[in-house]
Design a protein that fits this description.
Layout lengths: L1 E2 L2 E3 L6 E2 L8 E5 L6 E5 L18 H10 L16 E2 L11 E6 L8 E6 L6 E6 L15
Antiparallel strand pairs: 1-2, 2-3, 4-5, 6-7, 7-8, 8-9
Family: Belongs to the archaeal rpoM/eukaryotic RPA12/RPB9/RPC11 RNA polymerase family.
GO biological process, one term: termination of RNA polymerase I transcription
GO cellular component, one term: RNA polymerase I complex
Amino acid sequence: MIIGSLIFCESCGNLLSLPEHHSRSSTIRCAHCKQSQKFNIQEELAIVTRSNPNAFPSILRQKRTLVQNTTNSAGHQNDPAAAPLMDESCPKCNNPQMRYHTLQLRSADEGTTVFYECPNCRQARSVVKPSHLPIRNTNQVELK
């Protein structure tokens, strides 16, 4: 059985090796089950293989997608303007409050990353919080 450029044994399904010296009509013997089978080699056989980015899933690409498509607890896309405010002054414009959201970018035993954005000047920064500090589900986060 020929599939693309691969030749398989019709008895056991083992992948067969093409013999080094072969004629247009040759016989191949399976190294596994010892069955012989005939095959024809086409002189001008062109094999075209097509693929797409999703054909070979990447763990890194999946993680990137999870970070980019964050959703809130209601399952809706997060709106940065709806992020809670906390009493943290902006280092750029000294606005007394900044918006924040958190993501677990590292492994579960490491700290959560907190992203801050000033609603006034749009200055953004991120801080990794140690895992032993509780982050409460309120409008204010206790920073130490």
